[in-house]
Amino acid sequence: MISVLSRQQKFYSVAAAVANISVHEQRVTFDPGASWFKFHLGINRYALYARNDPNIAQLIKDMQNTPVIMVKPSGHHLKLALKFQDFGKAMFKPMRQERNQETPEDFFYFVDFQRHNAEIAAFHLDRVLDFRRVPPVVGRFVNVTGEILQATRNDDLRSVFFTSPANNTCFFAKCLYVCKTEYAVCGQPDLLEGSMSAYLPGLSISPRISIPNPWTRSYTFTGRQEWEVNPSYCDTVKKMYPYNLGNRLLNIIDMAIFDFLMGNMDRHHYEIFTKFGDAGFLLHFDNARGFGRHSHDEMSILAPLTQCCMIKQSTLLRLRLLARPQYRLSDVMRESLTLDPLWPVLTEPHLLALDRRLGRVLRAVQRCVKRLGEQGVVVMDFVETLRGATPRQTKESR
Ligand SMILES: Nc1ncnc2c1ncn2[C@@H]1O[C@H](COP(=O)(O)OP(=O)(O)OP(=O)(O)O)[C@@H](O)[C@H]1O
Ligand SMILES: [Mn+2]
Questions:
Q1: Which of 122, 128, 274, 256 is nearest to 210 (CA)?
Q2: What's the whole-number mean pLDDT along residues 330-349?
Q3: How many C-beta neighbours within 10 Å does residue 255 have?
Q4: What is the DSSP letter of 300?
Q5: What whole-number distance in Å separates Cα of residue 55 and Cα of residue 36?
Q6: How far is CA 8 from each of CA 15, 24, 150, 252, rounded to the nearest angstrom?
Q7: ipTM > 0.85, yes or no
Q8: Which of 21-35, 349-363, 371-385 is the least confident region?
Q9: Residues that constitute the known binding site
Q10: To test ligand 1's pocket by mutation, which of 56, 285, 289 has the most ligand atoms within 8 angstroms of CB?
């Protein structure tokens, strides 16, 4: 792997010298003890990492400090795939919006900005909720010239760089669709803050599939989905494979709670690892459209919970804990976010909105319990089966 890379580097430096562009040569090393590699090895069928895994702190540190050796554009939306000197990879989403800006009321969720701080905060929220289904994310100041322009060998990416009238280095996205709000990002003059999300292992070793969310929204200005008009929609879903088996529907409900807490309406698909079968957890990828409006609680995001009236016992216990004054969600989040170099990451109104929304989730559960009884609503999930309780019916795909 290293020899291929140094051959490539040699080739590029010759080409760059001819074209009179400067490229950085980086020394690369592969260490089997590298934090990104340990992260990959630690993924199991229950979560992306263990609750007290010290390697996650190391991975976060490494994504902050390790020199970038390669950059490629990744899809559209200005996001970039970075490779570090230790061969780790991360997805970089640059800052597009000031922290104290609220998404305008007239914005549709699908043209809303992607927020790098939402990606960071979502990782912390997911961990505080004890889900551990978001790959580790950390903020970082990147030097647009030194760490992106000079590190990339990608001509398309080079071609989108320019210097702004204020003399800042900027680049824009070549996007295919929904680019109305996507223009350019600029460093100050070179420094640009953004989020780094640790890459999962490649699809060839850990295949994943992307599945439409049964509670997806219509990505048009006027469309309505069935769940928005049919209050017994969940009865239909419950009968459908794979929601008729195991934990899948409960996992969707967990995801809805997670999205409701951060106000993310953009959960059109979810992904699972195929190796863990139908009982595997859902990956909570792409949280960049969360934390847009702190003054509004979008109740429709909770539809899977309010329509199905089911919740995992482990999730409910965690939520109840985070509603107690000693472990208040906003306090735990505020403390957790101090670990990020882009602290405070979220403004106070966004943190306080978390407590208000948590209260709403618990009240929604309470209404279900009143109607159907605790037995009918609170479901033992496989966290319990680990401790020797009767396993719930699960269907494994091979
Ligand atoms: N940390 C990661 N590791 C591996 N794959 C990832 C990671 N983050 C995102 N991806 C993959 O890349 C896809 C696009 O990422 P994401 O959704 O965050 O960006 P986006 O700008 O919204 O792009 P898109 O419009 O394509 O969804 C995800 O659906 C997922 O399959
Ligand atoms: Mn996306």
A1: 274
A2: 97
A3: 24
A4: G
A5: 9
A6: 11, 13, 15, 44
A7: yes
A8: 21-35
A9: 93, 197-200, 271, 286
A10: 285
Percent of the chain residues topping a pLDDT of 90: 71
- 79 close to ligand 1 (CB < 6 Angstrom): yes
Q: Which residues contact 226 (CB under 8 A, 6 or more apart)?
A: 233, 236
Instruction: At 48, list the tokens.
Output: 């992306």
CA of 339 to the centre of ligand 2 (A): 26
Q: What pLDDT digit, counting tens, does each position of 46-72 carry?
A: 999 999 999 999 999 999 999 999 999
Those residues with Cβ within 8 angstroms of residue 277's Cβ, 6 or more apart along the chain or in another chain: 45, 394, 395, 396, 397, 398
Retrieve residue 365's tokens. Answer: 């559960």
**In this predicted structure, which of 292-296, 312-316, 389-393 has the lowest mean pLDDT?**
389-393
d(CA 285, CA 68): 23
What distance in Å separates the CA atoms of residue 54 and residue 49, rounded to the nearest whole number?
A: 10
Q: Is 266 a catalytic residue?
A: yes
Amino acid occupying residue 181: T
The dihedral formed by the CA atoms of 340, 343, 345 and 348, expressed in degrees to the nearest 10 = 130
- List, as one string, the DSSP characters of 156-210: HHHHTEEE-TTS-EEEE---SS--TT--EEE-SSSEEEEEEEEPPPPTTTS-EEE
- Nearest protein Cα to ligand 1, atom 8: 285
User: Tens digit of pLDDT for each residue in 364-392?
Assistant: 999 999 999 999 999 998 544 444 434 44
Tell me if 283 CB under 6 Å of ligand 1. Answer: no
Distance between terminal CA atoms of the chain? 32
Strands of the sheet containing 161-163, edge to edge, are 161-163, 169-172, 184-186
Give the strands of the sheet with 89-94, arranged side by side.
68-73, 80-84, 89-94, 191-198, 137-143
* Structural domain spans, the chain: 2-198, 208-386
Question: Tell me, what's the pLDDT at 180?
Answer: 45
